[in-house]
Fold:
Amino acid sequence: MCLISSRQRRSGGLRFAAWTLATVAVTVRAHAVASDEVVSPSGSCCSGSRSSGPPALRPSASPAAVDVRKGRPSDEALRGMVWIPGGEFTMGGVDRLARPDEQPLHRVRVAGFWMDSTEVTNAEFRRFVEATGYVTTAERAVDWEELKRQLPPGTPRPPEDMLQPGASVFTPPSGQVDLADFRQWWTWTPGASWRHPSGPHTTLEGKDDHPVVHVSWDDAVAYCAWAGKRLPTEAEWEFAARGGLDQAVNVWGNEPVDHTRANTWQGHFPDHNTREDGFVGAAPVRSFPPNGYGLYDMAGNVWEWCADRFRADEYSRRVEAAGQGAVVADPKGPPNSSDPRNPHAPESRVHRGGSFLCSDRYCASYRPSARMASPPDNAMQHLGFRCVLSVATQENPDRTNQPGAEPARRGQ
Ligand SMILES: [Ca+2]
Ligand SMILES: [Ca+2]
Structure:
């Protein structure tokens, strides 16, 4: 658990430094986050350097994820999870909406694993916070004295509200705007956090079964560690999202998205949401049909963090390393990030699946091959996560909950 705290301090500071370098001459409103944008402007913003760190997590608060005597996940750990059988699939996309970072197509094999059937909900995240005292990235103020040591000499102090706890909230404009300017619909909002998803005056009342949002990658990793689980790799996430439909455009097949399929955006983005699917923002999990593996909201609702660092050229590098036609086994992402959307960020982590802000006009990232990424301390109103769990076998007793582990049993 100490590792979690140090990671938060590290990436928080670096993330905010990246923002400052990229946007110091821009207005406060420009400090909004990266979005669903297909070709988003460089730089994105952030929840700031949270150098104060969370309080120490209390030990023995984690549910027992693995029964070490039996070498398999405990019934408690498997609650709400489904077994994703391992196999081969074609990773990437070449449909009309596919982007260059989804190519080239290549064959990938993943070992089986358990996966949360839904995005982690507010109720689940609350149990984690109550058990551990964890404080999320967005709930911590920025330590300017620490931050400025990471910046070029003379870098001006950011506006005071940028140093306060907060996150970016979707604020639709009143009319049509330039889709290349995400500042038109993202507003840095002091006091916004997972507890106050639309700003300090909003609550979670009636939203226990909504996906938790405004959680950074660091927060997601902390939750998964507490639960004895982990974030999926990007390959595992895409394999699972496809639900057995290899090379289909969408998680339900090749039919285009509509309001019955997933929580996405209907109408004119970002100023007019006709909410034909019933939801302007996030929906309760399981509001739409599951995919072939029984997973809900793998398309839309909220984005989901993955473990991997992001590189736009990861697939071409992967194919080059493995050789044309090779099957890549359980890729775990590159050692370094390279993200043209966040060129100043020292690290960028993948998130997948799109959100309630996606439409085919704007992002189309509800497609299982679509890739996006943000710095690991970004907390956003449309970004959450779900966990996976690997299990050990007698042959591989040390692979418990590591990517690539084999199943001890099948179920559900
Ligand atoms: Ca919707
Ligand atoms: Ca989702």
